[in-house]
Amino acid sequence: xxxxxxxxxxxxxxxxxxxxxxxxxxxxxxxxxxxxxxxxxxxxxxxxxxxxxxxxxxxxxxxxxxxxxxxxxxxxxxxxxxxxxxxxxxxxxxxxxxxxxxxxxxxxxxxxxxxxxxxxxxxxxxxxxxxxxxxxxxxxxxxxxxxxxxxxxxxxxxxxxxxxxxxxxxxxxxxxxxxxxxxxxxxxxxxxxxxxxxxxxxxxxxxxxxxxxxxxxxxxxxxxxxxxxxxxxxxxxxxxxxxxxxxxxxxxxxxxxxxxxxxxxxxxxxxxxxxxxxxxxxxxxxxxxxxxxxxxxxxxxxxxxxxxxxxxxxxxxxxxxxxxxxxxxxxxxxxxxxxxxxxxxxxxxxxxxxxxxxxxxxxxxxxxxxxxxxxxxxxxxxxxxxxxxxxxxxxxxxxxxxxxxxxxx
Length: 409
Hints:
There is one protein chain. This protein is of the alpha+beta class and 409 residues long. The protein folds into 3 domains: 1-224 and 288-345, no CATH class; 234-280, no CATH class; 353-404, no CATH class. It contains 16 helices and 17 strands. The chain has helices spanning 9-12, 21-28, 79-87, 92-114, 180-184, 186-203, 230-241, 243-259, 266-280, 290-300, 303-308, 311-316, 328-331, 335-345, 347-350, 388-392; strands at residues 2-5, 18-19, 46-53, 58-65, 70-72, 75-76, 117-120, 127-130, 136-143, 154-163, 166-168, 173-175, 208-210, 217-219, 355-356, 372-373, 378-380. The longest helix is centred in the first third of the chain and has 23 residues, at 92-114.
């Protein structure tokens, strides 16, 4: 069971947001599950793509089987946060952590929603315009896949399945969504989610520390988190054992695509193959009660580990390894780490950014074209304008541009 969210829900014509597997399948097939009517004008079972015809020696368009029903945008809580939540699930702090997780997820998806576009093909037009709305199914999972026994490790995460539709205000109808910007800025969305979650934990008085790769954080007090990473260790073991096979399959797929005139990213293809191997080793989840899961987890803990998960311990731990904003320029190394540093260090500044209502959309390639009115003579857009700080520190930003702040309002 999941919950339908997103501004496009208002235009779908459904009464209930709760969705089961049958309703999900109908939405995947571009049908309103309550009325049976089509949601978007067309339901293409094939799509057109460019390819290199070896017989003619030219690039041509051909039809291939593949309907894009949607995509999943997962958001995963750091392992130590999942452990603390599982140990204190029935307490006030456990409920507070869960609410902060939901809030961070919603704010990150608000940023993803502001990046939604649709293609315009009426007449001789051939471009994409911003719509700023999506329809997605949010499903919360609490556990990882079990390894060995039937007791899974705690892994609080959300699957946000974005359906292939968006509401085009100018044409007054639902159309297929263009998720290019969402995919392009997936690291930014994930960094915002982690940043908002860390800020929520900070409000609760929980001490955190940034990870060595600068892309995430963990709760400072928790000891030996590796004992609850069995599924991750299993995947790494399979990848190591199949490393030669992975390289061979990656090269084969890249070369096969090149013969058809397509260029694939080597690292992305390699990641896809690793995911396929991981899915092949996944064990089906067994339905257990919360008490059974908690008893199984506590049986794996030493007294020291369990003591580090208690409310008194996590709130007594310090917040450390967080650099100040003035040091970002010297220390940034990769795009995801830069984005996460920016969000965690400049939240208060970013939330105050506003955009004049008369600003030219052409100067904001990442911004929603329709400004949202607010008090005074200004309006907050889906994304804030580039600041003087961003221009002075351009080397510290991803090439795609400064991360947006629509969800920080």
